[in-house]
Design brief:
Elements lengths: L1 H53 L3 E2 L2 E3 L4 H14 L3 E2 L6 H10 L5 E4 L5 H9 L4 E10 L1 E5 L10 H8 L21 E5 L4 H11 L9 E3 L2 H9 L4 E5 L1 H6 L4 E3 L2 E2 L5 E2 L3 H6 L6 E9 H6 L1 H20 L7 H12 L3
Parallel strand pairs: 1-3, 2-4, 7-8, 7-9
Antiparallel strand pairs: 4-13, 5-13, 6-9, 6-10, 11-12
Helix pairs in contact: 2-11, 11-12
């Protein structure tokens, strides 16, 4: 009997211990599961917060040259695929008009088809703006005529001067060559706010007045329509706009310094054989925007990293790879 009581007591104690152990394990598992869930939730929240903080957003204010605009538009489109919350629309006020907005602190980036002028530099300094110039591509300023023009096969710089400089007379093709038609030439030129106009003025007009009959426009597409719509039309604009409309236009070979008539092509622009109408294209960046706006810094970095490919795609000529590398190092130094 005593042995039976002792056995019963032992069984009861064992059962209690087993029950307590089971409860303890469940509690521990519950605590572990709770902690794991909490930690997972906190971890996910932390990652989401980090991703949100890393995601760029804002607007990059850009204006300037209509010649550089096709590169900028391609860059903005590709950049939006990586950073959809960053807006980077491209304005086309012309190089001069773009610099006016840049100096007024209305833009972060100014696209230019010529270097900044001394008076523009001075105005920027007086406005307290520090900026950096980046070269993005080469362009061959293209002289074009109507597709029906079957007599003009080349022009010299002197021919261009005779045609485009105002001298008080109605300009006819026969003024350049008596074998050409005695018909009035119709001129289409970028507007005076355009860097393309400035470059043509410097190289061809040499600061003389452009023909008064010339139709001026900051929109290169307007110039294309003007030349294609008049059999006696002649105009000039960036190489990309010629390529885009080459089926409807005839490009004119220009006699270079070596006496050779050369058409603008990627090869002749890059080699310098297409002179004197080859030129570099630029963007000017407000240094304060680089330092204070992460999305502007990332946009300019993306621009320089992809300019070679995108400039070529839209019809311009890329710089040597080492020039982009050097400029990226310059950009990094501005942060």
């Amino acid at each position: 009997m005593k042995n039976f009581k002792f056995l019963a007591l032992s069984i009861m104690i064992s059962s209690l211990l087993a029950f307590a152990t089971a409860c303890g394990n469940e509690a521990e598992e519950g605590a572990t599961e709770g902690t794991t869930t909490e930690e997972t939730t906190e971890g996910a929240t932390s990652e989401e917060t980090s991703e949100e903080a890393a995601e760029l957003e804002g607007e990059v204010a850009i204006d300037g040259s209509s010649t550089v605009a096709p590169i900028g538009e391609a860059v903005s489109e590709e950049f939006a695929g990586v950073h959809p919350k960053v807006q980077a629309p491209i304005g086309v006020s012309g190089t001069g008009g773009g610099f006016e907005k840049f100096i007024a602190k209305e833009t972060d980036i100014s696209e230019a088809s010529r270097p900044i002028k001394e008076e523009e530099k001075t105005a920027a300094e007086e406005a307290g703006i520090e900026f950096t110039e980046f070269k993005v591509a080469f362009d061959g300023l293209s002289v074009v005529v109507n597709k029906e023009n079957d007599f003009l096969d080349q022009l010299t710089v002197e021919d261009l001067k005779k045609l485009w400089i105002e001298d008080g007379n109605v300009k006819k093709w026969s003024d350049i060559n008596p074998d050409w038609p005695a018909e009035e030439v119709k001129f289409f030129s970028p507007g005076t706010d355009s860097g393309t106009y400035d470059y043509f003025n410097e190289v061809i007009l040499e600061d003389e007045q452009i023909v008064k009959s010339a139709q001026l426009s900051e929109d290169d597409n307007t110039l294309v329509k003007g030349v294609t719509g008049d059999k006696n039309g002649i105009g000039y604009f960036g190489y990309a706009y010629y390529l885009e409309n080459k089926d409807n236009l005839k490009v004119v070979p220009i006699v270079n310094e070596a006496g050779e008539a050369v058409e603008p092509t990627n090869e002749t622009v890059e080699s310098g054989d297409y002179n004197p109408l080859s030129r570099p294209l630029f963007i000017y960046v407000n240094n304060a925007s680089i330092k204070d706006k992460e999305h502007v810094y990332e946009y300019v970095k993306f621009y320089l990293e992809n300019a070679a490919e995108l400039a070529t795609e839209v019809g311009y000529v890329s710089l040597p790879e080492e020039e982009y590398t050097t400029q990226l190092e310059t950009l990094e130094g501005l942060k």
